[in-house]
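FW: tagging you since you asked about this chain on Friday. Here's the raw sequence from the shared folder, copied in full. Didn't touch anything.
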Amino acid sequence: MQTIGEMVEGVGRHEPKRIAIVFDEVEITYEEFNREVNRLAHGLLSRGLAKGDRVMVFMQNSPRIVMAYFAIIKAGMIMVPLNAMYRQNEIIHIGTDTSARAIIVDRDLWLREADVIAKLPDVELVVVDDTEARPGTVRLADIMSETTTPPPVDMHLDDIHCILYTSGTTGLPKGATQTHRAVVTNLRGGCSRNKLHRDDRLLCAMPLFNSYAMNVVMMSSLTMAATLVLLPRFEARAVLDQIQRRKCTIFAGTPTMFSYLLREYDEKRDNVESLRLTNSAGSHCPGSLAREIERTFDTIHLCGYGKTESSGYTVLNPLDGIRKDNSVGTALSNTWIKIVSDDEKELPAGEIGELVERGDTYSIHGYWNRPEVNQQAFRGGWFHTGDLGYIDEDGYLFLVDRKQDLIITGGTNIYPVEVEDVLYSHPKVSLAAVIGIPDEVKGEVPKAFIILKPGETATEQEIIDFVKTRIAKFKAPRMVEFVESLPQGPSGKILKRELRRRIKEQKD
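HL: got it, structure written out here
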């Protein structure tokens, strides 16, 4: 088994003239891509960074972010992707938690958040993708080395190459480590199940700070000598246009994205006959939606399941064979799944319990700097997903609910306590609770219930705008309900299940 860097180096040598990346009007060959990756890797090493150092990447979708990721990996460092919507509090938490020594950042994002550097004393190098030099930074173009050979760094399969922060249901976001072995195992299983080949063109419209986009799409494409067609962001019209123009064969996205595509699709205007396969993950894809995707685009649609902790898919429907309605499929190779009760007993087929998983797709290092969390999450050698479901007699997994309060909106996780912390910092707020409520397009959207301090008044928009200025906008409540009381247990804990019950009764 090769490391990720070795796989890309091999494609660059053996398939030099094949197109690696298409972005806007630019086409980059594997030879060009591999050369620039090696130049940046040497440039980072020349600035005093070393194997194992953490490097944050704060960039929008473009060939630059792909180059940065692979350069960090080839230099033996650990990339720490940052959501482009993050603001200072989130960047400070991640930078501090990882003791990151460097950050590579887009010009516009740097101008927006430049003040954050004063609160990150471990960061010694700021690389900005900019046309002009700015105080305390170095331009990306200026750090590029003239050396184009692979860096002489000794890499091992169980070395960490990425720490990707994910919001769970307790505490602040945790850094899920990903190793070369975990990702390569995931690539082998997913690429085999999708029957990915070198002539495929994978369209990526998801942000590349997301594990699904990074591993299932980007890594799969660039380690298999296929072509990655990259969009700056998801826009339904742009996706349909690119499928037609670039003859894309595979598109992977969230169910929400496919809902928007179906709304935008015009059979008289859009030719998507090049598509042979679509994938969805990130949230539940109803069987009715999967069937509509296949019927409308005349393609095969595979629903799958995975976690950031597992570096991508662990479960996926088969391309050849039976695809069961509302199932996310069967376990990929070198992955084991089972359903357990609260007392850790394996449940028979058809019984609902917690999904637990193990296999080489999981990093042996678990969460970064979280030994107590690792002991709990990986107890008994199995990763406890917190998701409820059942496995049928044929080994197909069906997910039915989540054990905790995580909100998933359009495939993106929102951690309610993080939003509540911001709400509590509002001078007018006395008590607050955030839950996810059903939404036909996004699956769930956050709603806040608020008790104001005596004598205070506030508007819904005032509260929403307050949250948006302090954390990423997508985490802000879409609705705010001002209430006189909140359901509480004996200890004073707000009972969110009662709030969800109220919402359901109102709908019924």
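FW: The chain has a mean pLDDT of 92.
HL: agreed, and The longest strand covers residues 429-439.
FW: great, closing this out.
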